[in-house]
Amino acid sequence: xxxxxxxxxxxxxxxxxxxxxxxxxxxxxxxxxxxxxxxxxxxxxxxxxxxxxxxxxxxxxxxxxxxxxxxxxxxxxxxxxxxxxxxxxxxxxxxxxxxxxxxxxxxxxxxxxxxxxxxxxxxxxxxxxxxxxxxxxxxxxxxxxxxxxxxxxxxxxxxxxxxxxxxxxxxxxxxxxxxxxxxxxxxxxxxxxxxxxxxxxxxxxxxxxxxxxxxxxxxxxxxxxxxxxxxxxxxxxxxxxx
Length: 242
Known about the structure:
By secondary structure, this protein is α/β, with parallel strands linked by helices. It has helices at residues 32-41, 52-57, 63-72, 86-94, 104-108, 110-120, 148-157, 179-189, 202-208, 223-226, 232-241, and strands at 2-10, 13-18, 21-29, 46-51, 76-80, 99-102, 124-131, 134-137, 142-147, 162-167, 192-196, 216-221. It has an eight-stranded parallel β-barrel, surrounded by six helices. Strand 8 (134-137) and strand 9 (142-147) form a beta hairpin.
């Protein structure tokens, strides 16, 4: 199971939002490049990057900065935020990023999902933001009437094998991860899942380890690392011990 530190980019800085609210923003670093180097030095094998400016505006806004990060670290990077057409996927692949996350566009534009998955099923990951098992879009502002499991089946039928599932209620709250939520998703979707939202301490990581055999590929951790509620090194040690 991977421990995946998050870097959310907004106005050139490394920030964290509470439940995705741009009005509840905390800046943790003025250099996302340096932050990526820190996570690499502490043992991360994959870094999760979100272009928040791109997510809010609908088009990538930080490709040059993300390329600087790509050139500064050797570990794998996955990128999301504002990826809504094939050309954007190709731009990121051209700068050396092989894990591309699509979110709202996968839900709203079925032709894009079909085309993207046909061309890049091995590189594509769909990020599903969830409130009480229903899909949320537009930066979590709109809760749809589509159940997570129904959307996951559509994605799976397109040949995509991996999902990032964000539990909106828990994200940025430091209140603990809902392990049962992810257990049920793994059981019902039979897909590889990366969990996101709620990790607040080492015990949350420990509780997720048994789900690895069911298909949990990793967990994204943001605020808990930045607030030093959890050290990346100790989380990695726990994974290796498990």
